[in-house]
């Protein structure tokens, strides 16, 4: 049967679903995209077991039906189409795709082989989609990479009637972002960092409807539905490691600090934690690094406060750069001690906090 | 001793020389950059054995001297500098680099370890640098990749008192580009394709002075001097394989043909030469492809000439795309037969010719 759909819309929705579908998988069913035709809607769906995704496209549909095809090939064809409108003619074993002067026949797969997805009927929570994306994207860098304990490789969401908070930590650094907006949900959950990467790409304008299910969080934003599998395990009690007493504290422009750290770090020893040294005294911040090729240093004037007149610390330059990356405008950098965690807060956006543990020196 | 030099100029010249210097090499001397200080000039030089390069930078120099340092580290430092002016203070074993509030110390190497380069005193030929780059970049794609006979992996330059021609071929396709400009040289030489890639990046405006030496071509363009090692061996007699009799010939827009081939080729079988089929008859060009996922086709109206009413051919879609890539505006596509070479010429730029051998079908 025939379906008519605007190319731009098909291409966009297909792009989202295609990206999560594995190109090669030990389970061939996972590389299939399911196409469901119903009254005035064409639905594309697929899964990589961590994320289920469904995209609805308004379309001129002649007859309902279920089909499946290799997602990547369909994506390549659709992206190449010359016309503004696409005509899809679904037959038993093949799909005719035509647009402008171009026509192609794609082999269809048995739809009973494709993964079948389920989404909740009702959504008890909601957040502004762009706000949720902001919170996730501010903290995601602090999640651990593969080597660490599994739960550290996730981003935690704390949802209650007061606020919404996203947190990530790998034990050496931590970042959280607060949304004043409560979601209507009251729960804590941990999303795999890779699923968070997909979510931040998908979330657009408008409302993100939320539903907590058995081991998964479902998010609906515009024409996209996403089930994200949750991580199991206990997220560390991070609040108790964030210090509250800071003998030294400085205020300076975040971009200036980031530029200086990146310049000085050129000389840092990549095999020794990318170490840069900070020395703060009398409203001056000296940053130095030393490696096998030589030594570099740069000084910045800062506004200094606190009970102690000076402090000496060392950080992994990459961790420092990561923590500064989401910032703009002035920041406050607060030091609890030479070997105890330091805290970076934005004066422009008080929702963001980064904590970073100094390197042990000497 | 002290040298003052504008950061932008140092960064640009350093970028050129740094790019050819190997980052890691079994011969550590090759990863060093030599710095020669003389009256009002700082000269950077290095080699990867295929290309020698020397860049001259006007600089405020206090005392002449020879130094050497790891090229990549120097490059990283210079790119990161904050100020407009760079002060270099060369000492016996280290180099102090400062710019704005930033300062670094780089370990120097023994300059006697760095490769010592020689360039000719006189240049008997010259071409417009941008024209030489145009000729090389039009044909470079047709050079063979690693698997083929060595000489096919080069780009030939034919220099005589009539014209200058660049040619590349891998036996399945060929491209040449003619420059009406004679160079003043009378010789034939073959440059390694990878050296050609570097040359096309380096050549800027103005004159390219040329000198043929023992096994190398030297090119001087503005403040850059380059020795390119020549390839040894006999380049094939390509002229005799370019057909002159074409029973069918079509004229059409190059971009339209490229777009159509790229769309249809989505279905082409990557394991079977990326084959696309062309069928020309009655001013119509039908392009089709078939692979394990399905079949695609698209038709174009063309202006057709010749003695034969129709022709059927197949090409490697990638080869066809490569041949079309340098073109804009209308092209003439001429067919000598179903299994004998076809020729593509630009109606906008008559200097370019591409030849492509059809795939054997059936």
What integer is the average pLDDT of chain A?
Answer: 94
Contiguous runs where pLDDT drops below 50 for at least 5 residues of chain A: none
Q: Given the helix and strand composition of chain A, which structural class is it? A: alpha+beta
Largest sheet of chain A: 9 strands, antiparallel
**Judging from the principal axes of the Cα atoms, what is the shape of chain A?**
elongated
Oligomer: homodimer
Query: What level of helicity do the residues of chain A show?
Result: 10-25%
Q: Hey, which two chains have the biggest interface?
A: A-B, 32 and 32 residues
Largest beta sheet of chain A: what is the strand line-up? Answer: 14-11-12-13-26-25-24-18-22
How many helices of chain A in DSSP terms?
Answer: 6
Question: First CA to last CA of chain A: what distance?
Answer: 74 Å
Strand content of chain A: 35-45%
Give the structure's gist in a few sentences.
Two copies of one chain form a homodimer. Chain A is of the alpha+beta class and 362 residues long.
What does this structure look like?
The structure is a homodimer of 362-residue chains. By secondary structure, the first copy, chain A, is of the alpha+beta class. The first copy, chain A, is 18% helix and 43% strand. Chain A contains six helices and 26 strands. In chain A, the strands form four sheets. A nine-stranded antiparallel β-sheet of chain A has the order 14-11-12-13-26-25-24-18-22. In chain A, helix 3 packs antiparallel against helix 4. The longest helix of chain A is centred in the N-terminal third of the chain and has 14 residues, at 7-20. The model of chain A has no long low-confidence stretch (mean pLDDT 94). The A-B interface holds A 70, 73, 76-77, 80-82, 94-95, 101-107, 259-260, 262-264, 266-267, 292-300 and B 70, 73, 76-77, 80-82, 94-95, 101-107, 259-260, 262-264, 266-267, 292-300.
């Amino acid at each position: 049967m025939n379906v008519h759909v605007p190319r731009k819309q098909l291409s966009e929705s297909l792009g989202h679903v295609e990206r999560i579908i594995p190109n090669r998988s030990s389970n061939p069913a996972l590389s299939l995209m399911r196409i469901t035709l119903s009254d005035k809607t064409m639905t594309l769906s697929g899964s990589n077991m961590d994320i289920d995704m469904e995209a609805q496209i308004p379309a001129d549909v002649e007859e309902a039906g279920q089909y499946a095809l290799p997602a990547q090939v369909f994506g390549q064809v659709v992206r190449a189409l010359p016309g503004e409108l696409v005509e899809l003619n679904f037959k038993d074993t093949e799909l005719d795709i035509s647009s402008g002067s171009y026509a192609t026949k794609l082999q269809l797969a048995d739809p009973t082989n494709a993964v079948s997805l389920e989404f909740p009927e009702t959504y008890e929570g909601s957040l502004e989609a762009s706000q949720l994306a902001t919170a996730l994207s501010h903290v995601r860098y602090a999640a651990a990479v593969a080597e660490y304990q599994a739960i550290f490789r996730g981003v935690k969401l704390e949802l209650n009637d007061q606020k919404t908070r996203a947190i990530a930590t790998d034990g050496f650094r931590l970042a959280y972002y607060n949304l004043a907006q409560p979601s209507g949900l009251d729960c804590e959950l941990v999303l795999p960092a890779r699923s968070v990467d997909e979510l931040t790409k998908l979330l657009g304008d408008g409302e993100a409807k939320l539903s907590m299910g058995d081991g998964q969080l479902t998010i609906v934003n515009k024409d996209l539905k996403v089930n994200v599998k949750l991580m199991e395990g206990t997220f560390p009690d991070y609040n108790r490691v964030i210090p509250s007493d800071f003998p030294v504290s400085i205020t300076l422009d975040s971009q200036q600090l980031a530029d200086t750290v990146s310049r000085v770090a050129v000389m840092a020893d990549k095999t020794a934690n990318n170490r840069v040294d900070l020395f703060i005294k009398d409203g001056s911040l000296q940053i130095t690094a030393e490696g096998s090729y030589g030594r570099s240093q740069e000084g910045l004037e800062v506004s200094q406060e606190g009970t102690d007149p000076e402090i000496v610390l060392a950080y992994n330059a990459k961790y420092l750069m990561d923590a500064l990356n989401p910032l703009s405008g002035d920041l406050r950098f607060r030091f609890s001690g030479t070997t105890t965690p330091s805290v970076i807060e934005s004066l422009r956006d008080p929702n963001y906090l980064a904590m970073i543990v100094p390197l042990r020196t000497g």
